[in-house]
Design brief:
Blueprint: H1 2-28, H2 34-60, H3 66-86, H4 99-127, H5 129-156, H6 161-182, H7 189-216, H8 221-243
Helix pairs in contact: 1-4, 1-5, 1-6, 2-3, 2-5, 2-7, 2-8, 3-7, 4-5, 4-6, 4-7, 5-6, 5-8
Amino acid sequence: MMQSAQLVLLVSLSTFVSTMAGGLLALRLKHRLHLVLGFSAGAVVGVALFDLLPESLSLAQARFGIPAATAALAIGFLGYLVLNRVLLLHGSGTPADPSSRRAALGAGSLCVHSFIDGLSIGLAFKVSMPVGAAVAVAVLVHDFSDGINTVGLVLRNEGGGRSALRWLLADALAPLAGAAMTLLITPSDPVLGICLAVFAGFFLYIGASDLVPESYRGYPRVWTTVMTLLGAAVIYIGVRLAQG
């Protein structure tokens, strides 16, 4: 148990580094990150489809049944959509909203879902080491792009470099808080299966509705498509190898 807790904290510290690295790189290279985003999209969707969803069905079906697990998947996807719209994840708002408020709401929502990323890491390691490792990889690549998105969102809404750095730091710390919370709770396997299905819905939305469009926007589509397929393939192979 102690080793598992230490591993969760170590991985969550890695998400801090990944988020900070993505954000700092975004401050230097604004328009050359489409291949990274494309790979991230494939990896995040791959984890949802090849790892989280099968594992959630296996854990939840004995008590709740497969329909409940798939409903949890839909709740995760649609719930994240609502979070995206209500909390202005992309920084869109009404014309009456000042730019600074849009930046704060958008960056704040990114911190919320980074907190959820931390929860997903901690709970995944409670299932097994391979599941935890696969989720950790997906979160790491996603958090790299998350740092990029946080900085880009603040800068797009007329925020300065210092404001962007402050929000980047908050976003990088959020997964640590989420992972630490999972050290205090131990759900049963069926409940854990439902939680994994919800996280699979989150990851599907992030990959398909956020990372894929962002990687394609204004860039050559052939190579971004190749990188997205490669990201999914890497996760598939990794999951199969981990399962033996």
